[in-house]
Here is the input.
Amino acid sequence: MKSVCMALLVVLFVSCSSDDGNSNKDYSLENQEEILSYIATNNIDAESTESGLYYVIDEVGEGDAITSTSDVTVKYKGYFTDGTVFDENTESAVSFNLQGVIEGWQEGIPMFNEGGSGLLIIPAHLAYGSNSYGGIPAGSVLVFEIEIIDYNAINKQEIEDYIAENDLNAMSTASGLYYVIEEQGEGVRPTSTSTVTVNYEGYFTDGEIFAERSANLNLEIEDILEGWQEGLQLLNEGGTMKLLIPSALGYGRYDYSVIPGGSVTIFDIELVDVN
Here is the structure.
């Protein structure tokens, strides 16, 4: 999953725009006329906010609520009202924090939940203003088709499909962790402050290994992935288990080393020792 980079116009601060001599021009009336004409021409059933943002909610989404400070993952297509595309990520999604994007996204995205989709029509004063940036002329109205990724739902389905395909007798917890206890073990059970020694191997649901089997690795439970913290405390010393960890309890929505953002990770673990 791609993370924020300079090439993605939508996720740049407005202050990065260059001054082309129009920095004091107010495009509000021009933009309003352009937006209303675009909506009428394309028969769009759009709503507006007091700030001048126009939006269409196709699907509000059934996932977590989004705030102006949330980290989100979005597929999008950005274009002008004449249909010219200036930026697009519809095949793969990008992840970013909403505090780092143009104002129209900061206001518009929280109208959806994760899993939502729709349209944002953004006047210049909520985007790049009276400055030009790259291929975006000063005073431009920007139109974005957006789809907000709900990793919780996607990961849950991926894990449940994997369990069914591999005929696993898995249990789940309220957090979304799935696990299979192969051998419970007869020793002590670790706590959140324990130091443990483990053997493990990590891989994705397609079987690709990202962590070769490690022997006798010493770990502080409070310093490891949330999925491990929760899962290891279900096992006794000497036991073995499989953890199927959604990204929210694993490496999150951003790329981490060889692990793409939003990945489900699976670990075969032997709990060798507890201290």
Remarks:
- The chain has a mean pLDDT of 92.
